[in-house]
Design goal:
This protein is of the alpha+beta class and 290 residues long. Helices cover 28% and strands 24% of the residues. The strands form three sheets. The protein has a seven-stranded mixed beta sheet with strand order 2-3-12-9-14-7-6, with no helix packed on it. Helix 3 runs antiparallel to helix 4 and helix 6 packs across helix 7. The longest helix has 24 residues.
Length: 290
């Protein structure tokens, strides 16, 4: 992998953001954006436990999906407050993602401001919370709706590995899925290049997010996240401006996912082996093009 650090700025003008990052689809970390929000100071474990602790949520372990796993299927369910107590107690390889906490506590939307000076098209019904215990992992994937993301870290630190969408075949993307066949866990220490040689060619970015950092992830960007410390983050999603981008996201969300889920139920082993054969063929072409 050919990795460079994500650019970081304290603040950025609308023009610079659009010209240097949004239009060019380059990630960026803005360190000062969230510090202006009330939530920067208010949001913590005990605050969330008090207001939405009784809400039942799905939790996810560190296991990678297999031939039978339907996308976004939870590994277990528990009360949000009980989960957060476990997170507070120490390392926990369980995480929560795409939790719309704002449906259960609408007043929380007053604790942040939509950054409309940076981009438009926000899906304001769905600001999402992501929580992970120390040691939990979000395996390499891209977001199925192909939205632009502003991902703000609150408590804790996490390491993020990013790649442009067009690097998908070097990353061994599973056809009809948003996931990679390769396991990027602790990639910075030991990655299996023997099994996934095309990954050596992939050009991407890396950053460690801390309290208050807001990461701009352009539409379709691949990302792998490892929680260095227990923490949580909020994602604000914005649809792409062009019709093609919107239609691409809609197809993946409602068409591609449905077909993949159906095939996993009806012919899981055949479907898995077919996808595996195709992804290795695509990766080989990337190597041959050198």
């Amino acid at each position: 992998m050919q990795i460079r650090l994500v650019d970081k700025v304290e603040d950025i003008s609308s023009a610079d953001f659009k010209n240097k990052y949004y239009n060019t689809k380059i990630p960026l970390v803005i360190t000062g954006l969230a510090k202006q929000w009330p939530g920067f100071h208010k949001w913590n474990w005990d605050y969330f436990i008090a207001i939405v602790g009784e809400t039942r949520v799905g939790v996810y372990n560190n296991n990678k999906s297999d031939a039978f796993t339907t996308i976004n299927k939870a590994d277990d369910y528990m009360k949000f407050g009980d989960y957060l107590q476990l997170v507070k107690a120490g390392p926990l390889e369980l995480r929560i993602f795409l939790f719309n906490i704002f449906q259960h506590a609408p007043g929380l939307v007053n604790d942040f401001t939509w950054p409309v000076h940076l981009m438009t098209g926000y899906v304001k019904k769905y600001p999402m919370l992501f929580v992970g215990g120390e040691g939990s992992i979000t395996h390499m994937h891209f977001d199925i709706d192909m939205s632009h993301i502003l991902h703000t870290q609150f408590i804790g630190k996490k390491r993020v590995l990013l790649f442009p969408h067009e690097e998908q075949y070097k990353l061994y993307r599973k056809p009809w899925e948003v996931l990679s066949m390769a396991n990027y866990t602790r990639y910075y220490e030991n990655f299996d290049y023997n099994s996934f040689p095309a990954t050596r060619l992939a050009k991407g970015y890396e950053v460690i997010l801390e309290h208050g950092d807001t990461l701009f992830m352009p539409a379709g960007f691949w990302h792998h996240m490892e929680y260095i410390e227990s923490g949580f983050a909020m994602s604000l999603r914005a649809l792409q401006n062009d019709l093609g981008g919107k239609l691409n996201g809609a197809w993946k969300l409602f068409g591609m996912r449905g077909i993949d889920s159906l095939m996993k139920k009806t012919a899981p082993h055949w479907w898995y082996n077919l996808k595996k054969e195709k992804l290795y063929a695509q990766a080989s072409k990337e190597i041959e093009q050198l």
